[in-house]
Write a structure and sequence with these properties.
Structural class of chain A: alpha/beta
Distance between the termini of chain B: 83 Å
Largest interface: A-B, 36 and 61 residues
CATH class of the largest domain in chain B: Alpha Beta
Structural class of chain B: alpha/beta
Shape of chain B: globular
Largest sheet of chain A: 8 strands, parallel, barrel
CATH superfamily of the largest domain in chain B: Thiamin diphosphate (ThDP)-binding fold, Pyr/PP domains
Oligomer: heterodimer
Number of domains of chain B: 7
Strand content of chain A: 15-25%
Number of helices of chain A: 12
Number of strands of chain A: 12
Chain lengths: 333, 1185
């Protein structure tokens, strides 16, 4: 019997396939179907503090606009209801997911204010999340802001959130860090139990007809696996945290690679969004078949087996460009 | 007895009872009663139950007539049913009211009494509407204050159930409907103990029921109709006693005793006034004041006007009375006197008291102020040996000399009452904050309090005036704060100082709070001379605060409301500072809490940061300013504009005498040009080097403030130094022609639609366009001069312009300019386009609504004239009849043209055969042809003018109709889809040559965004609080079914060329044309600057397919339907969820939003499929198979 089970952030999981933060969790029905298909845990879509603030201010703006100015129309929109503009909606949904599912549900949070992060983290914990994933990103545009300014800010934030909650904490980070291992170490020291590599962002594109900037998020491909694969391989065994690989997980082979790099779980969204939850079963079957064929007993057995510290040629992970690949050679007798 | 006092306005006070006492409520929006319907709808949508534990069913109808019919049906089948209305709405209910009364049916209609449209429409209050219904057989029941409106709503219900006579409960529009006052609320237990359940069951017993069938509504003949009509007399005779009984029962339960006629004043009064409505409050306060000083005067406040009880009236009248003055808030031209006056005279004569001298007069029409001084004027008149009968008071009538003089300094205000006046900019939230303030004072302190709010007539950049009173005694003052009476005056917008005299309200020693960019040390030098003088002379305590800065720092944007409110509480000391701040914050949480924490947070921050910015100004002893208040209009404006419109612009319209006003409501056009409003913070600046001269900016400008011209470059001689120009790129007009895009800086609203429409982007800096926004103040003077020069350049001859391209069409001068529409309005670009293409020969019928308000609300009118003095002739009849009104215009033109053609041959000798033939056979399909015909008609006038032949004179008087006229019928979706649909349909069916433009905002915009049948599925609107559950009516499809109606659906933002083509084709079609124009609107909850972009999305999502259906194509054997938008390419949600009206539902009820959005998506798909099939149908000559 092949053992697919793993643990992540201290949570026992029946297999390493986790649905990452995405619209997949927006419908309880869909989450249930994912569970039935075999997914081992679900990370909820992110609670964006900025979005809550924006929606709140926007609603206020449009309810106010033009009001109390003209005798016949003292307002232009009805304003009678209780708007779902607060973390309550998210929290209620989280509680609903918890009730409907037996697999772990991990909350996800992106805040903008210090108070917002800790306040919402606590609320997510209270709503019943099994763990919390912090969704960190920052696009620096100021010339005087240094990488250490940003890193210090984020490390401090992780420490604050950690001290506010008791459930395990994972931090989802961006790959755009000058010294990722050091940053990862600092995050873990600040209290992160797990690191999720990596966040994918909307990237601006140019519309050449309109000369305007367009934003879109394309679904990932397996090719994107390489970046987190490298960094989990490098960090595995050096930093005391559970790793989750996200970006580019589309096949059982991608899952195997993630595990071998040192990840505890492989997270996916694009594949599920594109192909539906039935891919979970197929991937798990393929995974099991592959392991059987090669006589692997368990997932745990392979976790980290291809990490930098476990491979014959650790420098392979340090190769960064074409020249270096060409230039590697050994003297022959 | 448990009592709860709350602050609320008259509409809410009434609706709160009506909603609890009814089962079926049929509503329709009309100012000032709309709020009652909105509240009823909102409460039912939220599941609020009536007294019997069930949620009343609220339905919006297509008109007030429809609402009355529905209520009639509901009553006939046994429901407790009501409606709310005003003005023309009540008139539309009259036919049903006769029926309801004739059938002795218990119901109460609640009316916020309003003026009727006669020489002009007015949304304000008087009793003309109610008096127009007094013959219907309904009891007329008048409340005069917010508390009374609340109480009488209940008493009316008690009385009607017992009497079986329907009650019309009315209170003064705006004065009572919109005044906020402290009232004791009737609890459910109170109401329960007031109502007799047996009577309700009896009402149900009378219902139509097939188990015990009866028939009502017979047709009767001469033999019995008369007798049957007399059967009801005992019921009417019983109403007064029943009503008094209800009042007495009410007093037992609540402690508030009313009588059919309530007398106040000296017990031995010799002079007595009789009055109804809120004027009674003024009268009561005045006679109490005078009687306390020994004057033998009194007032009778009439509560139950009809049926008029002589017995109760005489009982109320002191025996000592020698003379009576009756006040009527209505006008009945040609009558011997107004109705209340006549009834009083009649009552006295019938009861043998003809010895009492009675005079009657009019007051307070259209919410004209009615003060104690005016009331006293009539009592004073009674003391004269020959008092003036049929007087007016409150105006200066120098024509018929009806008006009474009064002493404006007479006041009965309580010394302990604090009076505060606040001047705010519409968008700064001043009124909202003051509503909160007055609620805080009224509900959180022992004070009585009152708030009343005055708005101006424009929809953007407007001034609001808030009048707040509070003090230890009940506030019985239904009039605005008078001059020299305010303890506190606040100006929230610095620029108002140079436009309005606001310190006239301040009493000596009052506080003046100014929102100022200048600090306490420097502000003095920036004040106009008059303001400095008043501050010194009235010994005002003067405070400044830079509210703009605090707002900016705390993310409040332009809303200084919370800041100024905090400053008000800090200075006025009504509450201890900490307590005041706690209450303000509590009010903020209550008002904004449901909108999210961020909103509350920013308001809290604004409160917290206010006090550090508040400073008292050390007032110098001398007036030093060189700045003086600006006249409302320039000195070179025409006399009428200066003397009449200018006074209105300067808020001094009350001073205008009768003789200065037109007798028949006819006003000159082209007067907005004199009202320089300067409301834009930023204006567009043109970059000639980048401009491709496409004219798109000109086309989309809602206010016609950006224009372009091609002109002979020689005309540049004498141009101001900064006047921009470049060589013309128009192929028809170059070389030798120059080109300029010019902005009128003082008329622009800063909406930025022009910048959005500009298709050009700088190749080296993509963010820079051929027009970009820049701050207005530094440009104002220079660009005003440039605008003046630009306007002096002659327009190109229309004959030379082929209007079929955007750039060329926009060379035609807009004859609709600088309207009071919202900044960025989505309607006005279409209206302006009509004025450009056809304005010099257009006659326009305009339905009541936004377009009639920004098009016809005084003081100034945007419809303009060209250099020859020609321009659109415009009129507004009503809301419901606009299509018919326009058809009538067409018929006149057609008939008189026909008559002229009949007469013409009679004068062949005088005119010459060639001229007669040329006139009769003129080709007027082009501007050249029309101009040629104009010249021929001029010749005809000239030649026939010399003849002394009546037929020649006749021909001259109708000959103008031989020049092609363009009849436009313009209105919004509320008119076209709902209230005016029957007429619209008939006019379309008539086949006559009219052009109907429907400005489709998908809601009743003018009355504040109520749902119409044009409202799309899934959108939230007032009267559709939980999202409209059914799809938008397809008006175009219905019109196409006639086969001979030209129909176009356009969206200027999506395809301006298609819009232009549709307008040209519609006008050229010699039959009925209908253009349905997507008009983005403030009621959509969307950034108006992006309105054009949103129009594109509306089209791309399939919400708004664009097409033209031209019956001429069918005649040629082609399919008449040409679809001009592509298959939907984006999900409907991508368009819809940009707008608050859709997004709000997702925030309120996600599951319902999702369900409705899916259905709406299906609507779009089905509509597209249907149109596709229609457009591909084979017509005889079509080659496609």
């Amino acid at each position: 019997m092949t053992d697919l089970s793993t643990t992540y952030l201290g949570l026992p999981l029946k297999n390493p396939l986790v649905a990452s933060a995405s619209p997949l969790s927006k419908k309880i029905e869909r989450a249930k179907r994912l569970e039935e298909a075999g997914i081992a845990a679900i990370v909820m879509y992110s609670l964006f503090e900025e979005q809550i603030i924006h929606e709140s201010l926007e609603l206020d703006h449009y309810l106010n606009r033009g009001s109390e100015s003209f005798a016949e129309a003292l307002s232009y929109l009805p304003d009678g209801g209780l708007y779902g503009i607060s973390p309550e909606k998210y929290l209620n949904h989280l509680a609903g997911l918890k009730k409907a599912l037996s697999i772990p549900v991990i909350g996800s949070l992106n805040g903008v204010s210090k108070g917002g992060w800790t306040n919402y983290a606590r609320k997510i914990e209270e709503a019943g999340a099994d763990a919390l994933e912090l969704n960190l990103y920052f696009i620096p545009t100021e010339l005087d802001m240094t990488s250490s300014d940003i890193e210090n800010m984020q490390v401090e934030l992780v420490a604050e959130v950690k001290s506010a909650i008791k459930i395990p904490l994972a931090v989802k980070i961006s790959p755009f860090v000058t010294a990722l291992p050091n940053f990862a170490k600092r995050l873990v020291e600040a209290g992160a139990n797990g690191l999720v590599l990596f966040n994918r962002f909307y990237q601006p594109d140019f519309d050449l007809d309109e000369l305007e900037i367009r934003h879109s998020l394309d679904l990932s491909t397996s090719a994107e696996l390489r970046l987190p694969l490298r960094w989990i391989s490098i960090l595995y065994g050096k930093v005391n945290a559970d790793f989750a690989l996200t970006s580019g997980v589309h096949t059982h082979e991608d899952v195997l690679k993630a595990m071998m790099a040192g990840a505890k779980v492989a997270m996916m969204a694009s594949n599920l969004l594109h192909n539906g939850e039935q891919v979970v079963g197929l991937m798990l079957n393929d995974l099991e078949a592959w392991m059987k064929e090669r006589e692997y007993e368990s997932i745990r057995q392979m976790q980290g087996s291809m990490s930098q510290k476990s491979v014959k040629e650790p420098a392979a992970f340090e190769r960064a460009n074409y020249m270096k690949v060409l230039g590697s050679f050994r003297d022959l007798p | 007895m448990k009592k709860t006092t709350v602050m609320m306005d008259g509409n809410e006070a009434t609706a709160s009872v009506a909603h609890r006492l009814n089962e079926v409520i049929a509503i329709y929006p009309i100012t000032p009663s709309s709020t009652m319907g909105e509240l009823a709808d909102e409460w039912s949508a939220k599941g609020k139950k009536n007294l019997w534990g069930t949620v009343p069913l609220v339905i919006e109808m297509q008109s007030e007539g429809g609402a009355a019919g529905t209520v009639h049906g509901a009553l006939q089948t046994g429901a407790l049913s009501t409606t709310f209305t005003a003005s023309q709405g009540l008139l539309l209910m009259i036919p049903n009211m006769y029926k309801i009364a004739g059938e002795l049916t218990s119901t109460v209609f609640h009316v916020a009494a309003r003026s009727l449209a006669a020489h002009a429409l007015s949304i304000f209050g008087d009793h003309q509407d109610v008096m127009a219904a007094r013959q219907t057989g309904w009891a007329l029941f008048s409340s005069g204050s917010v508390q009374e409106a609340h109480d009488f709503a209940a008493i009316a219900q008690m009385a009607t159930l017992k009497a079986r006579i329907p009650f019309l409960h009315f209170f003064d529009g705006f004065r009572t409907s919109h005044e906020i006052n402290k009232i004791t609320i009737l609890s459910d237990e109170d109401l329960r103990s007031l109502l007799d359940e047996d009577l309700i069951r009896a009402h149900r017993e009378r219902a139509l029921n097939p188990n015990r069938p009866v028939l009502r509504g017979t047709a009767q003949n001469p033999d019995v109709y008369f007798q049957a009509r007399e059967t009801v007399n005992p019921f009417y005779a019983a109403v007064p006693a029943i009503t008094q009984e209800a009042m007495d029962r009410f007093a037992q339960v609540t402690g508030r005793q009313y009588h059919l006629f309530d007398y106040y004043g000296h017990p031995e009064a010799e002079r007595v006034a009789i009055i109804m409505g809120s004027g009674g409050e003024t009268g009561e306060a005045t006679v109490k004041y005078l009687a306390a000083r020994g004057e033998k005067v009194g007032v009778i406040r009439v509560r139950l006007y009809r049926p008029f009880s002589i017995e109760h009236f005489l009982k109320a009248l002191p025996k000592t009375v020698k003379s009576i003055a009756v006040f009527d808030r209505t006008k009945e031209p040609g009558a011997l006197g107004e109705p209340l006056y006549q009834d009083v005279v009649n009552a006295l004569v019938e009861s043998g008291r003809a010895d009492i001298k009675v005079i009657g007069g009019r007051y307070g029409l259209s919410s004209k102020e009615f003060t104690p001084a005016m009331f006293k004027a009539a009592l004073d008149e009674l003391a004269k040996p020959e008092p003036k009968n049929h007087f007016t008071v409150g105006i200066y009538d120098d024509v018929s000399h009806t008006s009474l003089d009064y002493d404006p300094s007479f006041s009965v205000e309580e010394e302990e009452t604090i009076r505060c006046v606040f001047f705010g900019l519409g968008s700064d939230g001043t009124v909202g904050a003051n509503k909160n303030s007055i609620k805080i004072i009224g509900e959180e302190t022992d004070n009585y309090a009152q708030g009343y709010f005055v708005y101006d007539s424009k929809k953007s950049g407007t001034m609001t005036i808030s009048h707040l009173r509070f003090g230890p005694k009940p506030i019985q003052a239904p009039y605005v704060i008078e001059e020299n009476q305010a303890n506190f005056v606040a100006c929230h917008q610095f620029t108002f100082l140079e436009r309005f005299d606001m310190l006239k309200y301040a009493k000596e020693g009052a506080v003046f709070l100014l929102n100022s960019l200048y600090g306490a040390d420097e502000v003095w030098d920036h004040l106009p001379l008059e303001v400095q003088r008043d501050i010194i002379q009235k010994k005002l305590k003067f405070y400044v605060i830079n509210g703009y800065e605090v707002a900016e720092k705390t993310g409040m944007g332009g809303r200084v409301n919370t800041i100024m409110q905090t400053a008000f509480f800090a200075i006025s000391g009504i509450l201890p500072r900490e307590a005041a701040i706690a209450e303000i914050k509590h009010a903020i949480e209550k008002t904004y809490g449901k909108r999210g924490e961020a909103v509350v947070r920013k308001n809290f921050e604004a409160v917290d940061r206010t006090l550090e910015h508040l400073r008292e100004v050390k007032v110098p002893a001398e007036v030093t300013s060189k700045i003086t208040r600006r006249p409302p209009v320039p000195a070179d404006a025409p006399e009428f504009v200066r003397n009449v419109l200018g006074e209105m612009i300067g808020f001094n319209g009350d001073r205008i005498p009768v003789s200065a006003l037109p007798v028949d409501g006819t006003f000159p056009t082209a007067t907005t040009q004199w009202e320089k409003r300067n409301i834009a913070l930023e204006i567009p600046v043109w970059e000639p080097d980048l401009c491709i001269q496409c004219g798109k900016c000109v086309m989309v400008c809602p206010h016609a403030v950006i224009r372009h011209k091609v002109y002979d470059e020689k005309l540049l001689a004498g141009a101001p130094e900064t006047f921009k120009h470049t060589a013309s790129k128009f192929k028809e007009f170059s070389p030798g022609y120059a080109y300029t895009v010019q902005v009128s800086p003082e008329d622009c609203t800063g909406c930025t639609l022009c910048v959005e429409a500009c298709p050009v982007k700088d190749k080296s800096q993509a963010g820079r366009k051929a027009i970009n926004m820049a701050p207005q103040p530094p440009l104002r003077e220079q660009e005003a001069k440039n605008w003046e020069f630009f306007m002096s350049i002659p327009d190109l001859d229309r004959k030379l312009i082929n209007p079929s391209t955007i750039k060329n069409s926009q060379l035609l001068r807009p004859l609709f300019e600088f309207s009071g529409a919202c900044a960025g309005c989505g309607e006005t670009p279409y209206v302006k386009l009509v004025s450009q293409l056809f304005g010099d020969r257009a006659v326009i019928a305009n339905a009541t609504g936004c377009s009639s308000i920004y098009g016809g609300n005084l003081p100034t009118t945007p419809w303009a004239v060209d250099s020859k003095g020609r321009g659109p002739a415009w009129s507004n009849s009503l809301f419901e009849d606009n299509a018919e009104f326009g058809l009538g215009m067409r018929l006149t033109i057609d008939k008189q043209a026909e008559y002229a053609r009949e007469l013409l041959p009679l004068f062949e000798k005088e005119l010459g055969k060639d001229l007669v033939d040329a006139i009769l056979n003129a080709d007027q399909s082009s501007e050249t042809g029309i101009e040629a015909q104009r010249e021929r008609i001029a010749q005809l006038r000239e030649k026939l003018g010399r003849l002394d032949d009546p037929r020649a004179k006749d021909l001259i008087s109708v000959a103008d109709n031989l020049v092609k006229k363009s009849v436009w019928i313009i209105g919004g979706d509320g008119w076209a889809y709902d209230i005016g649909y029957g007429g619209l349909d008939h006019v379309l069916a008539s086949g006559r040559n009219v052009n109907i433009l429907v400005l489709d905002t998908e809601v009743y915009s003018n009355t504040g965004g109520q749902a119409s049948k044009a409202t799309p599925r899934a959108a939230v609107a007032k009267f559709a609080m939980s999202g409209k559950s059914l799809p938008k009516k397809d008006l175009g499809l219905i019109a196409m079914s006639y086969g001979y109606v030209y129909v176009a659906r356009v969206a200027m933002g999506a395809n301006d060329q298609q819009t232009l083509r549709a307008f040209l084709e519609a006008e050229s079609y010699e039959g009925p044309s209908l253009i349905i124009a997507y008009s983005h609107c403030i009621a959509h909850g969307y950034d108006m600057a992006k309105g054009l972009e949103q129009q594109k999305l509306a089209v791309q999502s399939g919400h708004w397919p664009m097409y033209r259906y031209d019956p001429r194509l069918a005649v040629q054997g082609h399919n008449p339907l040409v679809i001009e938008s592509k298959e939907p390419s984006i999900p409907l949600a991508q368009y819809a969820y940009n707008e608050t009206r859709y997004k709000m539902l997702a925030q309120l009820d996600e599951a319902r939003a999702e369900e409705l959005m899916q259905k709406a998506q299906q609507d779009a798909k089905s509509r597209w499929a249907l149109y596709q099939q229609m457009a591909s149908m084979h017509y005889n000559g079509d080659k496609k198979e």
